[in-house]
Amino acid sequence: MSVRQLWEGTDAAGWAQKLNGRTKLLFLFLFAILMITVDNPRTLFILFTFTLILHLAAKTSIYKWKVMAILLLLGLWGSMFSQALFFAQTPRTPLFVLIAPEAGFIGQLTGGLFIYREGILYGAVQGLRSASMLALGLLVCWTSDPRQLLQALLAWRLPPQMAFMLVTAIRFLPVLAAETGEVITALQLRSDSQSGRTAVLRHLPYIAKPLLARCLRRAQTRGGWGVGRGRFGWGGGLPRHTRGGPGNLFF
User: Would the pLDDT of 50 be above 50?
Assistant: First the structure.
């Protein structure tokens, strides 16, 4: 599977691809409200498990599962670690002492740095919220054609300019992944190095500039194309070949 296909929904189950875009976005919105209102850890874990079951039903590929697992673990680890360090509520129980309060100037400056048990638990609960939303958001992106989402946003009377920007941001993920892969390949060929994780890590500091330049050129081309063809509006003023639907205008 190519880097670009990793972020596209071409391999999803048929029922997931045929599902209306408005239904997907409405379910995502209601699920987000549910994540904010629910505070029970067991309920949050059940909802998180439900999103994983949806991925199984949509036949998410093993490569996408790996990407999602990395993103989920990073999010959970960051939430738990930050709350474990800076949990301010009481009572709190220190599990480890990283910097003792009497440890010279640093100890006096920080007042001591501890790992709190309550902070770990609180961070895990907050991490479940973001993990559930991330999993469901990836499911929507991986099972939806950009035209579906664009038509759904326009059906809700969202301004065409805003709808175009939102859908373009989602559509830009596979493009950005493909551009990154091409830049890494070019750097490996230029330096005559072999492929592999070590080579990719070695070239990471040199990816930003060429990647940013290519993304800016692509964004300028797409923006000019959209403005020139449709002026961000639908209706009788459009050419005949674009009246089949708003998705035909930009995609």
Answer: yes
Cβ-in-10-Å burial (0-12, 13-18, 19+) of 136 comes to buried
CA distances from 248 to 8, 170, 230, 244 (A): 18, 17, 11, 7
Rounded Cα–Cα distance for residues 143 and 164 (Å): 19
Question: Does the predicted model carry a pTM greater than 0.90?
Answer: no
Is residue 184 within 8 A of residue 196, CB to CB? The reply is: no
Nearest 5°: phi and psi at 49? -65, -35
How far, in Å, are 65, 151, 194, 237, 246 from residue 234 at the CA level? 38, 12, 50, 7, 7
Q: Is the dihedral of CA 80, 85, 90, 92 positive or negative?
A: positive
- Of residues 22, 16, 29, the one with CA closest to residue 152: 22
132-152 tens-digit pLDDT: 999 999 898 888 877 788 888
Measured distance CA(30)–CA(215) in Å, rounded: 33
Taking the C-alpha atoms of residue 35 and residue 138, their distance in angstroms, rounded to an integer, is: 16
Give the chain's length: 251
Whose structure tokens read 């059906």?
Answer: 155
Question: Greatest CA span in the chain, whole angstroms?
Answer: 77
The span from the CA of 141 to the CA of 21, in Å, is 11
Q: Extract the runs of DSSP E, i.e. beta strands, from 16-125.
A: 94-99, 113-116
Exposure letters 173-202 (e unless 16+ CB within 10 A, then b): bbbbbbbbeebbeebbeeeeeeeeeeebee
CB burial of residue 47 (10 Å; 0-12, 13-18, 19+): buried
